[in-house]
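Treating backbone geometry as a discrete language has practical consequences that deserve illustration. Part of our work consisted of pairing the sequence of a single chain with a tokenised description of its backbone. We regard such an encoding as a compact summary of how the chain folds. The amino acid sequence and the backbone structure tokens for this protein are reproduced below.
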Amino acid sequence: MFAHSFASVRWLCICALPLTAVACGSDSNSSDDGAGGAAGVTTESGGTSGAAGSGGVTGSGGSTSGMGGTLSGAGGNVGTGSAVTGGGGATSSGGATASGGASAGGTSSSGGSSAGGASSSGGASSGGSNSAGGATSSGGSNGAGGSSGDCSTAPAPSPLVGWASVSGNGVSTTTGGAGGPTSTVTSLSDLTAAVKGTDAKIIQIKGNISGDVTIGSNKTLIGLCGAKLTGYVSLNKSVNVIVRNLTIVGKNCSDSKSDCSAGDDAITVQGAAHHLWFDHDDISDGSDGNLDMTHASDFITISWTKFHYSGRRTDAAGASGGHQFSNLIGHSDDNASEDTGHLRITFHHSWWADNVVERMPRARFGQVHLFDNLYTATGNDYCIGVGNGASIRADNNVFIGVADPIKSYSTDGTGVIKSTGNVYTNTTGSSADVGTGTVFTPPYTATLDPTTGLEAAIRSGAGPK
């Protein structure tokens, strides 16, 4: 059993900027690409289904006094004032309250936690768990969500935290297809038809579907019963989309055998797409990347998601490690005019696992928040790549057996990362912060789980349920 303690952390709001839609492009001038990339952005989906939060791991209900480390304001610098320490995150009953708890994340409907967080509607009905436990009193915890024991019922999501929850560009928060009709699809043709357009829809996916899919706006895609998409998923100019509980397997360079970077990602986000939430997904084997976000995309949260590759491959174009690069944020050093003020992305409780070599993530220009993530991709080149114009906060992440947890690719000195509370176990190379500028201050409330026990919680909770 993993009992969480939460430190409630609050930040002030940042104004959102308007977005423009543009064409796609790849990371063609990155020094971390080995032989370099081709001009087109490619995508694909990927991997075998990951550790899916299997049964028996329950939360402890509410939180004790905060132990997750402190973060501070003062213009965004870490440790320079306005620190808000823990102690305010626990509900009086030990569980999530009806008004502030993570009601979608497997808490009981009566306010307190029932059997460690399991609920009759969103919690673990058959031995599953909301492995992140209770909620804070100010908006819910980062709990993993409840499991469903019924193949016709979607598991509960984790609470929405991070940039996808922030108002901007005419959208108040990410709701996906809420309010629209629910349908279940089992074929590529039915899925393709269901995700078109802008009407609000909730689409449940069953079985294994192969082929490329382009997702429109105002959609929620939910995997049921171990559902898997094999191919390429595109979100180009898409607005207000949720993808959760789904395994997405890319083409693993089968579409571009002479140059993996010219193949598809598993998922491509581009064209100023915004307000997207990827929750409890398993994404692997992208030819170019697993989940790349470029061209002024914005307001994105990735939570409880596993990234990996099914094995080691060789890139005929000579890219390092077979071009097994996971997450690119901002495709080019020359794209500052489009990307600056956008690419606001949060990763939390996500896992970079087997055979990922680079880009966990590699960021340019964006405001990227990485908290409570797990890195176990041994044999890698580097983990977090800090590029030109990037502003990155890295809080309470756990790095185990990896090389260069933090690496600078800021050729003009404008990239900055500030970290606090990270744990480095058997790592090599650099873990030092990069840059001397001021890091951004997130405009949302989040919680930091203590790093003690975080590895076990993410291993059991990340990926589809």
Remarks:
- The first helix runs from residue 188 to 194.
- Helices lie at 188-194, 336-339, 454-461.
- The radius of gyration is 20 Å.
